[in-house]
Amino acid sequence: MSDTDHADRAAGWFGESFGGEPEGVWRAPGRANLIGEHTDYNGGWVLPFALDRGVTVAAARRGDGLLAVRSREAAGGPVTVPLATLAPGEVTGWAAYPAGVAWALRQAGHGLADGASLAIDADLPQGAGLSSSAALECAVVLALTGLSGLDLPRPDLAALARRAENDFVGVPSGIMDQSASLLCQAGHALLLDCLSGHTSAVPLDPAAAGLALLIVDTGARHALDDGRYALRRLECDRAAAALRVPCLREVGDAGAAAGLADPLLRRRARHVISENGRVLAAVALLRGGGLAGLGPVLNASHASLRDDFEISWPEADLAVDAAVAAGALGARMMGGGFGGSALALVPADDPAPTAAITAAFARHGWPPPRFLDAVPSTGARRLR
């Protein structure tokens, strides 16, 4: 769909939900993370890129101090809450994400006293590891600041969206997803230094190299608020403390993890330290025009996530193995883990990897996976 189509669809949904026309329509993309998994909250490097799938928000001011949100993807009518008394724990489920953004803006001193109506539409699968929650947060933060006439720097908007997820929803995520949604450029990945906040664009044009990035939605759903993500973060903090550093980013040699007495912490630290090295190796390849050389880096990342960080799942392991056996240059699980999607670097227009993955799933009696072409796309923007 074009931007015009997305805007028209969201505006129609706004009229159906609230009556009348919205004052504006905003859209934020989901993201795929090329490399750099679970490094963000450890102060490391990540290399995500924006997708052409995302979340669209049509919005208008209300005048009664209420925030009303309705999603096409959620059953029921609008969820309505008073802005003046909004606090963590008062809103649950999907509506906590837009409510959390409003709360974070108010906590930062941005009034939003008039209230707002938000109609939410999406073409991004939820629970597939494509950052649907951050896309929702970023579309909402653009909508609410746009309605209020606020012109805040994009990194500040990313920080506000992250605060909504961390402090209102209660998911201890890093800054990667929100930064990718708000800062990415078409035809590029975003190198984000999660310790300094510094970002730079890295060329990523698979088509020019005769290749494609394929997302495999395995159908196994995950939830970052189920406790396992938070546990990995706690384990990383414990490993950093045992190594006497503020965060694992401060350890440059994966061999240093061997000094940890606890074998579990040793594995967690080894993944994070080696994954940081893989991000920098990937950046060097991309800036040197060597995208085809990225395959072994992706494979090594998957092995580390599976064996050292222990967050892969059977469908992802099968998809990765089948893709590589069928000619993919490399593949890995992607996202927070325990469900979601895998990413494969494949020859362009080659049906063999998708056919092999589909056949492998069928042999296990699993529902067929879904496939998305991952084209590095533009970041969040106003559509009208």
Main pleated-sheet profile: 8 strands, mixed
Residue share in β-strands: 15-25%
So what's the overall shape?
A: globular
The count of domains is 2
Top-tier CATH class of the largest domain: Alpha Beta
The overall strand count is: 12
Low-confidence stretches: none
Helices and strands in order:
Elements: H1 3-18, E1 24-35, E2 45-61, E3 66-71, E4 79-82, H2 96-107, E5 116-122, H3 132-147, H4 154-169, H5 176-183, E6 188-193, E7 199-203, E8 211-217, H6 228-242, H7 263-287, H8 295-307, H9 314-325, E9 330-334, E10 341-347, H10 352-363, E11 370-373, E12 381-382
Question: What does this 3D model show about the protein?
Answer:
It contains 10 helices and 12 strands. The model has no long low-confidence stretch (mean pLDDT 95). Strand 3 and strand 4 form a beta hairpin. The strands form 2 sheets. Strands 1, 2, 3, 4, 5, 6, 7 and 12 form an 8-stranded mixed beta sheet that branches. A 4-stranded antiparallel beta sheet has the order 9-10-8-11. It starts with a helix and ends with a strand. It has 2 domains: 3-200 and 378-382, Ribosomal Protein S5, domain 2; 205-373, Alpha-Beta Plaits (2-Layer Sandwich). The radius of gyration is 21 Å and the shape is globular. It is of the alpha+beta class and 384 residues long. Helix 9 (314-325) crosses helix 10.
